[in-house]
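Appendix C reproduces, verbatim, an entry submitted by the partner laboratory led by Prof. M.T., so that reviewers can inspect both the input and the predicted structure.
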Amino acid sequence: MGDIRVRKLEDWVLAVHRRLAKNEGDSLENHLRQLLTAAAIEAQNRFADRAEARVKALHDKYGVLPDSADVVTEERWERG
């Protein structure tokens, strides 16, 4: 697992997160870890949503494309 150090963080930002962590009965480190993890998951979900929309758009435009695996395999065998 990686470690990070955040420099030049505004004092009030740190104070807010310390207070939030304390109110949740959690450590500041774990509170921030959960925030960073949630942000990363959200970014991955947005990417997956965009990819799914792109696949749907291609499907709507071109329909179901045939599987080319058999053709590729056959060409490889022919080439040796």
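The mean pLDDT is 96. Additional entries are available on request from the coordinating office.
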